[in-house]
Structure prediction request, 187 residues.
Amino acid sequence: MSIHWPAIFEMLTRVAGVDLLTAKATPVRGGCIHQAFCVENQGNKFFLKLNTHDKGPMFAAEFDALQQLEKTQTLQVPEPIAHGVDDGFAWLVTEFLDLVPASVLAHEALGRQLAMLHNRPRPHFGWHRDNAIGLTLQINDVNAEWMPFFREKRIGWQLELARRDGYVFDGSERLMESMEVLFAGYD
Prediction:
């Protein structure tokens, strides 16, 4: 994908509300299947993901997810700024977080924050839209009960993807059938 930076900087200036016309873009890690950049100018820093136009729905779902996670106030996520599809490429812009190697205490804090996030009362399990982890579709059909959702949409789906790729796990059927007993009392 050939990047036309003047058009991207113009788009970023429009969506971020700050002058980024003469910004500098530095490649960074964190894009996985996308190209990722730190875009900065005059003290303003943004995280930019780029990909081909067909990845627009992935960025829309990620933007939506970041907004929802931000609302929970349980863990820090980059502030989602904008997403879209322009000139043949899809893009997502968020706050840039300067990440540092995590300490044991930071890992423990993250574990507590994730537990708080998942311990919140909710009317159902799943989400209003599917999303992706990398190129892997994450199916989020809503279910009123935790165990059927976890069994079918998380474990069952991963086993199905593995099966499609030629991997078969001994005992996977037994695992799926016994999950109610294995996880009794976890909800």
Q: What stands out?
A: The chain has five helices and seven strands. The domain at 5-95 is CATH 3.30.200.20 (Phosphorylase Kinase; domain 1). Helices lie at 5-16, 56-72, 104-118, 146-164, 172-182. Strands lie at 24-27, 35-41, 44-52, 80-86, 89-95, 131-133, 136-138.
